[in-house]
Write the structure tokens for this entry.
Amino acid sequence: MQKRILTGDRPTGPLHLGHYVGSLANRVRLQHEYDSYVLIADVQALTDNFEHPEMLEANVFEVALDYLAVGLDPEKVRIVVQSMVPELAELTIYFMNLVTVATLERNPTVKEEIKQRNFAKGVPVGFWSYPISQAADITIFKADLVPVGEDQLPMIEQAREIVRRFNRLYRKVLIEPKALVGAMARLPGTDGGAKMSKSLGNCIYLGDSTETVRKRVMSMYTDPTRIHPTDPGHVEGNPVFTYHDVFNPNKAEVEELKERYRKGTVGDVEVKQRLFDALEKFLAPIRERRAEYGKNRARVREIIMEGTKKGRAVAQATMEEVRDAMKLSYKFA
Ligand code: TRP
């Protein structure tokens, strides 16, 4: 029997190169070997966007388009919408008994996110406890593997803890999932910041036009110590070269550019121009597929509905077992 993978994204807008490097590339590769589910986590997106639920429908659709555009094959991968699987909410409630407040408060990713978000009226319980709901996401589909970016490792650890407690306390129903971190953990932003993030405006989106990509690349942060193209430059930690390493398949060209950059015999403009060419080659087919699916909304809708139906069937079967293990399948006989 094929092992199963489950991943997910919050639908807060279109996906970018950071998503691609951190997890989409892995999913595309793994779809041939694994029984694959991807969850569009709209309920999780609500935990910090609850004041704007009207954005979700369009965002869910955009994320589905991005999945199809990068090459997730709807014959192989089930695209599942979280809010359309209410069993997830039920499992989350049961899991809440298995997690302490202290454990939630220690979660480094959530801590960091709370800092960034600066919730004016205090941290909503839904946001603070989303690792529990994410544990339900992972376990309800009985995933063996979860391909994610490294910031998600605490979530997988939390899920594993819950599974161990559940299985020990009730009965061995759930599978302890393993994380699979992408080949490259994190792609820096175009501004040289640690990661691409919508709120920082340092992203290149999978659906960006040629012109936007050109502008983004040509204005990328490079080596701040280098003033003239004849100054010896730094390659390490220079996001332009990090991107070259990831997206330029012509390794000889990349090595040559690095050497010339270190010696001060190539300008930033040329290095960026070559990066733009490489990115265009990478993005053009994605953009094309995205546009094609975008013209066929009925087909995308059908893929989402079909995937969600299959996902929900798995979730319902798991919940039968969960309720049974928890002695909640009352017969009153
Ligand atoms: N927390 C993930 C993110 O912000 C999204 C997500 C929700 C997820 N449920 C998941 C990821 C289950 C992996 C598995 O990107």
Residues 297-325 form the longest helix (29 residues). The domain at 207-290 is CATH 1.10.240.10 (Tyrosyl-Transfer RNA Synthetase). The mean pLDDT is 95. The radius of gyration is 22 Å.
